[in-house]
Amino acid sequence: MAPNASDDSATAADADELRAARRRKAARYVVPATVVGVAAATIGLVPALADSGDPDLPKISAQELVEKIAASDVQQLSGTVKITTDLGLPDLGGLESSLGSAAGPSGSGDGSSADPSSKLTELASGTHTLRVAADGENKQKVSLLEDAAEYSLIHNGKDVWGYDSKSNSVFHTTASEQAGKPKGELPATPKDLAEDALKAADKTTSITVEGTAQVAGRDAYRLVIKPKDKDTTVGQITVAVDSKTGLPLKFTLTPASGGAAVVDAGFTQVSFAQPAASTFDFTPPKGAKVEEEDASKAPGHAEHFGKEQRKDLDKGSAELGKTGPEGLNVIGDGWDSIATFDTGGKGVPSGAEVGGDAGSFLDSLGDKVSGGFGQGTVFKTRLINALITDDGKVYVGAVTKDALVKAADAGK
């Protein structure tokens, strides 16, 4: 590593300043990509994005680097982002094909395969390549490249188009009038992911600068965010920040348990030149089936999984209950936050009760637990764990199994 590491830690005041800056200035270049919404909490990067060098850059403190990110105002860019998901889920076996058949030919139930919400599950595992482009706050595009096919989500002015080339189907809705963006904007780039992590920075977080890196041919500083909470499953987050523009180029989240990254998203190519205007043009192809939708009125679509909901969760706010499941509350704050709600029904059936591939899948995910609350099952990944009690209460968070049981006991 180049000798520019800093032991400075960002304080709570620094985090407050960052949040204020974020309120003053929207991240205008970000693609409003519901299709990559899973990236907020469930992505890991391929080894091909390993650093290609340690450039010698001027020393910078953690506070100065956080301020540089907040001040970044890149509005024009194009590039390629590589994403790999590694939640440590077991092999779905025959369950995956069974679910696909039940969903219909497009795998999305009754809806169009071009509907962004139908693409979320595809990013829950494996390696994916995204092409992104932006020209100000009213023109963004993200394309998910698949085998012999492509899915694109385009925002151009008031129109938002989703197009699935495999099925030749089109989804169309209109952007929110607020800031000229469609509702339901979700993370599509390392900048989104980095800002979501930084806004949670408080007394429970250590933020330092630890060396440099080169990402997509750009010199960058390495900002390291480490939770101090002992019950969280998050080990640390590393953000490669472009030394000139302050734009996060790469985001890596490693679990407290060690091993491969769970969340790691970064550019393999990036340009800050203005994209061609034609990049954002879209006309439904001949013969394509077009689904028109008012996203603001669709409970299963974008706005219900957007940034505002995640902000509430990050703050540990009871206001989340207004947009999330009825009766949802948040216990604690910071990295140890646990969301809880009552389904009003019974707990999860055992694998033996379900039977078949689905039953085997349930058993592979769940651990039976008991405590003062009674009995239940903890469903686990390398990042997010959830306890569902036998009487239908749910506790979920980026915390350990023991923390969930403790929360259930306290809530009894």
Q: Give a count of the beta strands, DSSP E runs of length 2 or more.
A: 18
CATH topology of the largest domain: outer membrane lipoprotein receptor (LolB), chain A
Beta fraction of the residues? 25-35%
Helix content: 10-25%
CATH homologous group name of the largest domain: Lipoprotein localisation LolA/LolB/LppX
| CATH class category label of the largest domain | Mainly Beta
Unreliably modeled segments: 1-7, 18-52, 92-110, 177-187, 295-324
Please give the CATH architecture of the largest domain: Clam
Q: What's the N-to-C terminus distance?
A: 50 Å
Q: Which structural category fits the helices and strands?
A: alpha+beta
Number of domains: 2
Largest sheet: 12 strands, mixed
Mean pLDDT, all residues = 74
Radius of gyration: 21 Å
Your description of this structure?
- This protein is an alpha+beta fold and 412 residues long.
- It has 2 domains: 290 residues, outer membrane lipoprotein receptor (LolB), chain A, CATH 2.50.20; 96 residues, TATA-Binding Protein.
- It is 19% helix and 32% strand.
- The protein is built from 9 helices and 18 strands.
- The strands form 2 sheets. The protein has a 12-stranded mixed beta sheet.
- Helix 1 packs parallel to helix 3.
- The longest helix is centred in the first third of the chain and has 13 residues.
- The radius of gyration is 21 Å and the shape is globular.
- The N and C termini lie far apart (50 Å).
- The N terminus is likely disordered.
